[in-house]
Write a structure and sequence with these properties.
This protein is of the alpha+beta class. It folds into two domains: 13-198, DNA ligase/mRNA capping enzyme (D-amino Acid Aminotransferase, Chain A, domain 1, 2-Layer Sandwich), CATH 3.30.470; 200-339, Nucleic acid-binding proteins (OB fold (Dihydrolipoamide Acetyltransferase, E2P), Beta Barrel), CATH 2.40.50. Helices cover 18% and strands 33% of the residues. It contains eight helices and 20 strands. It has helices at 59-68, 89-93, 100-109, 132-142, 159-168, 243-253, 274-277, 349-352, and strands at 13-16, 25-29, 33-40, 43-48, 72-80, 82-83, 86-87, 113-122, 125-126, 150-152, 155-156, 176-180, 191-197, 200-212, 215-226, 232-238, 296-308, 311-312, 316-317, 322-326. Strands 3, 4, 5, 8, 9 and 10 form a six-stranded mixed β-sheet that branches. A hairpin with a 2-residue loop joins β8 and β9. The protein is globular and about 65 Å long. The mean pLDDT is 90.
Length: 356
């Protein structure tokens, strides 16, 4: 492979802001795997956000990209999987599997798509120093007439359209809106774009915690919600605390600390089979490898309010939640899925068109 921009490349990133800024280039924020695709003739490389190769996990995309991208190019975008008209992040994580046979089966059952939104190189020219508005024009021209499963991300410079996307597209599983200055060059691994994401709050049960990697202080709180059958389901964690606050939490939570998980709603967390019928902490993770997922159980009596962006498949927080306050006025049993706001449905095909 011999391109003007060579792998590995860490992608340009976005920082969070509360409101959509004016006078910019706007796109939907895709909830998938960020990917930079390098094509040089028959050679294809797909680099992840951390620069690891994703080629072996998405064999169906390799061939599609080879057929649909320009002969020599570097394209920034997102790998997504759609099921029942909306993005499904869990289906993506299932692909990170050591067995090639399993990956092949999943690629046939739930094929992935690639949504292109930036062009870093074309033919023999690096576009890293070219303004975004010009890169976008070159991307649209280079992928003119491209067919699924490769797509060009819809974009606009109309802030009212961007606001409408922000309100509507969540129903298709999208994550918000990204705003990019029109004159912005491509800068690797720098947060020069802006992301505007949905934020909601929920009252959740604190049912355990993990220790921080630095020592005997709280690393993250384990959060739960009761389902319609009265079972406490693990829905995520909140973890952004100062070191002083982590130390204080150890003392505050000590009265609720259980000697063992016996009698706890998640007592069976060490058994693989238990994770098939319920959500509990410690599920095997392809991302963390041998990372210690052990946790310390608490009597599920404490309630806190957290901020979250959206739920993955209506079951868990897609990202780490943010602690807001304790809720001594709420009973744990009142913390159910029923309190969660459901976005209005929106068919992904209305954004990208049908897959076939």
């Amino acid at each position: 492979m011999d391109l003007p921009v060579m792998p590995p490349v860490k992608p340009m990133l976005a920082k969070s802001v509360v409101r959509i800024p004016p006078d910019m280039h706007y796109e939907a924020k895709w909830d998938g795997f960020r990917a930079i695709v390098f094509r040089d003739g028959d050679e294809i490389e797909i680099g992840s956000r951390s620069t690891k190769s994703l080629v072996r996990y998405f064999p169906e995309l390799v061939e599609a990209l080879r057929e649909r991208l320009p002969e020599r190019c570097v394209v920034d975008g997102e790998i997504v999987i759609a099921r029942e008209g909306r993005l499904d992040f869990d289906a993506l994580t299932e692909r990170i599997h050591p067995a090639a046979s399993r990956v092949k089966t999943l690629s046939e059952r739930n094929p992935a798509s690639f949504v292109a939104f930036d062009l870093l190189a074309l033919a023999d020219e690096s576009l890293l120093d070219v303004p975004l508005s010009d890169r976008r024009a070159l991307l649209v021209a280079a992928l003119s007439g491209v067919t699924a499963p490769v797509h060009v991300a819809p974009a606009t410079t109309d802030i009212e359209v961007a606001q409408r996307w922000f309100e509507q597209y969540e129903g298709a599983g999208l994550d918000g809106v990204v705003a990019k200055p029109l004159t912005l060059p491509y800068r690797r691994d720098e947060r020069l774009m802006y992301k505007i994401k949905h934020e909601r709050t929920a009252d959740v049960v604190v049912a355990g915690y993990r220790l921080h990697k630095s020592g005997p202080v709280v690393g993250s709180l384990l959060l739960g919600l009761y389902d319609a059958h009265g079972a406490l389901q693990h829905v995520g964690v909140c973890a952004a605390f100062t070191m002083k606050r982590r130390e204080e939490l150890i003392t505050e939570l000590e009265p609720l600390r259980m000697e063992s998980a016996a009698g706890h709603p998640w007592a069976a967390w060490t058994q693989d089979a238990a994770h098939e019928s319920a959500r509990m902490p410690g599920a095997p993770s392809r991302w963390t490898g041998k990372k210690d997922l052990s946790w310390l159980p608490l009597r599920p009596e404490l309630v806190c309010e957290v901020a979250y962006e959206h739920m993955e498949n209506g079951e868990r927080f897609r990202h780490t939640a943010r602690f807001r306050r304790w809720r001594p006025d709420r009973t744990p049993e009142s913390c159910t899925y029923a309190q969660l706001e459901e976005p209005v449905g929106y068919d992904l095909a209305d954004i990208l068109g049908p897959r076939d």
